[in-house]
Amino acid sequence: MPLAQTAIFCADIGGSFIDFALIGPDGHIGMRQKCRTPTRDLDAFTKILMTLTDHQPHIPLHIALPGLRDPQKGICTTANIPCVNGIDLAKILGERLNRNVKIGNDADCFTLAETLHGAARGHRNVLGIILGTGVGGGLVLGGELVIGAGGLTGEWGHAPFIPSIPGTEDKIPCFPCGCGQRGCIDTIGGARGLERLHAWSCKETADSRTILTAWHAGDEKACQTLAIYLHYLSSALALAVNITGATILPAGGGLANDEKMLAALDAAVREKILRPTENPLIVASQLGNAAGLIGAAAL
């Protein structure tokens, strides 16, 4: 399936770097380069994209953004790039760069890419999951990317999932979340969350890589942390599978690179869903760090 009828400039915007490339109709990735993201200066942000695209004035620019774009108002919201908060970035860039600009959530772009060209090819209902610094997701239903009100879809990491019961703080890992609620899966699901969970469970500080390495070696404390981690994540994802009918969950982000952990999470989810299956549900991304660019091209 071609990504578009013409080549498209694509930028996967991160809090530290912009990953930029020209994506051809056949999916070929050319002119790929990285540059630092100006997070607090909109003029500098615009200038970098202008420099990257100026030599081809008529090619559209598609952007994967780590945040939301309200589909009705066009307003962007992102935690890591404050210079684009509260503005219609696509409109501003379109005027300044004199070209068509489209913007999508980076997890949506990831899910779309894996559905069209990666691990989820052939599946019509797909829940893409990100296990990175935090957790996120995107949703494809009936082969089409779903964009909800306010740009919110596939956010399986938010809502008060882990109960907050007074007097059980030492038994239930219910932590405040950046979204303003308590007990969200995002508080324990990403790399920083795994570290928070380990500190709560074992009363010791370690980074996520050290915790996983210790778990691989059979360390008792790490195994205790991972047992709690896998219980809560698999419960949340089983609920998401039962609601969406997703038949595959391609996973990206740093934690998804741990094959043993991903397999354990998959097994736990398949034990909890209503539809028994022997086929893996949670699978590693096939497109790796190119998924954001490829998905942006398909917006």
TrEMBL record:
Keyword NAD part of the UniProt annotation: no
Keyword Repeat attributed: no
Sorted UniProt keywords: Plasmid
Domain of life of the native organism: Bacteria
A Pfam family this chain is assigned to: ROK
Annotated InterPro entries: ATPase_NBD, ROK, ROK_cs
Transmembrane segments: none
Record family assignment: Belongs to the ROK (NagC/XylR) family.
Record's protein name: N-acetylglucosamine kinase
Naturally occurring in which organism (per UniProt): Kozakia baliensis
